């Protein structure tokens, strides 16, 4: 029994340490131990010291007990025994109080004169544990009503909407910082100066051998007109550069050389060349891409 108590005390202490850490360290989306891994170390120290204390106290106790004279030991045992009984008695009383049940021998005092074919009814008091729970729920109901229906606390629906708005903000933030997630479905035309400048430098170092520095075309088609072999608009251009052109034409897939983000940047740069006038333009190839004109991705001049 003693060992069980020791173990319970150690577990309780560790649990208390965890709860304290959680309460005292404010962090909304991670628990304290994820946010501050060194807390594990502290927890380990708490655990080890608790075990050490339990062991030393236990050892001290048994040494003292063994050093007692036989008569003293007997007296000590008696004392312990009566302490234990007093404790048990306390629990027994508390249990009885909470039930407030008439003992069987006194049942005649509370029997009602209802008699249903020999089945009779006792008029026991409501068990106090139940009754207090009932009162507590009434008090709770008032507090709840005033808080949410009189003083206008945030209702569940509002809480939900706030959380959704927060989550949407986080998703937008995430998408903004994780351009590596870009696919043909999520790519959008970039218009920021930095993106276009990076796109230009990618274009100049990889593409001009076939498309010329001004996009006028050579081995590859003219990129400045509104005629596209493989489709215009950011999604098609992104796809062409990612996956390459038709087999054997010379336009390779760039996905192993360029990151999705870089492909989006160079695609946007290519589209920004649209409508410019190169020095020695190649004849238009492919078809007029009207969807992009409508979407405003290509300027018509
Ligand atoms: C080895 C030469 C070569 C290089 C280098 C090259 N391309 Fe191409 N590109 C081509 C050819 C050839 C085509 C036509 C493909 C076809 O007809 O299927 C083409 C097609 C394209 C198209 C589609 C044009 C249309 O009309 O649909 C785009 C956009 C494009 N290239 C962009 C780029 C970009 C951006 C780079 C640099 C990252 C690049 N290319 C590098 C040869 C090249």
From TrEMBL:
Tell me the keywords, alphabetical order. Coiled coil, Heme, Iron, Membrane, Metal-binding, Transmembrane, Transmembrane helix
Kindly list the GO molecular function terms attached to this UniProt entry.
electron transfer activity; heme binding; metal ion binding
Occurrences of domain Cytochrome c (ranges): 194-274
User: Which SUPFAM superfamilies does the entry link to?
Assistant: Cytochrome c
Where do the TM regions start and end?
Answer: 6-25, 37-61, 129-146
Any single Pfam family the record assigns to this protein: FixP_N
Task: Report if keyword Nucleotide-binding is assigned.
Answer: no
Keyword Transport attached: no
Chain segments annotated as coiled-coil in the UniProt record: 157-184
Name used for this protein in its record: Cytochrome c oxidase cbb3-type subunit 3
Gene source species:
Gillisia mitskevichiae
């Amino acid at each position: 029994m003693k060992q069980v108590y020791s173990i319970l005390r150690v577990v309780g202490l560790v649990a208390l340490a965890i709860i304290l850490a959680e309460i005292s360290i404010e962090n909304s989306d991670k628990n304290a131990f994820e946010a501050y891994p060194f807390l594990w170390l502290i927890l380990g120290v708490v655990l080890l010291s608790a075990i050490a204390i339990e062991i030393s106290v236990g050892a001290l106790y048994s040494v003292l007990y063994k050093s007692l004279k036989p008569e003293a030991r007997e007296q000590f045992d008696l004392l312990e025994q009566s302490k234990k009984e007093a404790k048990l008695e306390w629990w027994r009383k508390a249990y009885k109080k909470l039930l407030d049940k008439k003992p069987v021998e006194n049942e005649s005092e509370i029997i009602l004169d209802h008699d249903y074919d020999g089945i009779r009814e006792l008029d026991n008091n409501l068990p106090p544990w139940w009754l207090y729970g009932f009162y507590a729920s009434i008090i709770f109901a008032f507090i709840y009503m005033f808080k949410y229906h009189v003083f206008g606390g945030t209702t569940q629906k509002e809480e939900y909407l706030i959380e959704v708005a927060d989550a949407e903000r986080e998703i937008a933030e995430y998408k903004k910082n994780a351009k590596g997630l870009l696919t043909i479905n999520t790519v959008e035309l970039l218009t920021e100066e930095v993106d276009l400048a990076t796109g230009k430098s990618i274009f100049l170092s990889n593409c001009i051998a076939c498309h010329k520095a001004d996009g006028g075309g050579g081995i590859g088609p003219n990129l400045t007109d509104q005629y596209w072999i493989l489709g215009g608009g950011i999604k098609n251009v992104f796809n062409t550069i990612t996956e390459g052109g038709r087999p054997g034409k010379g336009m390779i897939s760039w996905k192993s050389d360029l990151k999705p983000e870089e492909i989006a940047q160079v695609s946007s740069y290519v589209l920004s060349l649209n409508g410019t006038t190169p020095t020695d333009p190649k004849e238009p190839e492919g078809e007029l891409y009207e969807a992009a004109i409508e979407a405003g991705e290509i300027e018509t001049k």
